[in-house]
TrEMBL record:
Gene3D superfamilies: HybD-like. This is Hydrogenase maturation protease. SUPFAM superfamilies: HybD-like. CDD domains: H2MP. The keyword Nucleotide-binding does not apply. GO terms for molecular function: aspartic-type endopeptidase activity; enzyme activator activity. InterPro entries: Pept_HybD-like_dom_sf (IPR023430), Peptidase_A31 (IPR000671). Belongs to the peptidase A31 family. The keyword Protease applies. Keywords: Aspartyl protease, Hydrolase, Protease. GO terms for biological process: protein processing. Pfam families: HycI (PF01750).
């Protein structure tokens, strides 16, 4: 079995709950841009995230957030620098969310060397609604930014992108 790519982009969210679908929207765009080998989408328990960190040098996690900032605001956090800010609530609806998974991994010394969290501030999380306009724009911009970052770090298949 081959080694996993050193870069993993984990996109969290539920497409059926409004702006909670920001992560999956970023995943879709990254796949369209040729980064499918580096993208995984999650909507289940947070422990799946930590399991996929094994053997990865660099992990980027994308999720929706609720902090009171304007919709579409992008929060970028370095999880290796310390605990995530308490006023930034990630939109997880699961028992063990991203912040808890990161702290558990920190306690167990399982954090990747480079773990960044990109959280897109949402507006609404009602069932059945699509992304709000500002969140949709932010998701597309973030995906384009992450593609550029992946290319700078030598991600395979990034050059095969379609525009």
């Amino acid at each position: 079995m081959s080694e996993p790519p050193s870069l993993l982009i984990q996109c969290i969210g539920n497409r059926l709950r409004g702006d909670d679908g920001a992560g999956p929207a970023v995943a879709d765009r990254l796949r369209d841009l040729g980064l499918g080998d580096h993208v995984r989408e999650y909507w289940g328990e947070g422990t799946e995230l930590m399991q996929d960190w094994e053997g990865r040098e660099r992990v980027i996690v994308v999720d929706a957030s609720r902090s009171g900032a304007p919709p579409g605001t992008l929060h970028i956090l370095d999880a290796n620098a310390g605990e995530l800010p308490r006023d930034l609530r990630l939109a997880s609806s699961h028992r063990l969310g991203l912040a808890e998974v990161i702290e558990l991994a920190r306690m167990l010394d399982l954090l990747p060397k480079d773990l960044k969290v990109h959280a897109i501030e949402g507006e609404g999380y009602a069932p059945g609604e699509g992304l709000s306009l500002f969140v949709e724009r932010a998701a597309l911009q973030l995906a384009d930014q992450l593609r550029g970052e992946a290319m700078r770090h030598g991600a395979q298949n990034a050059s095969a992108a379609r525009d």
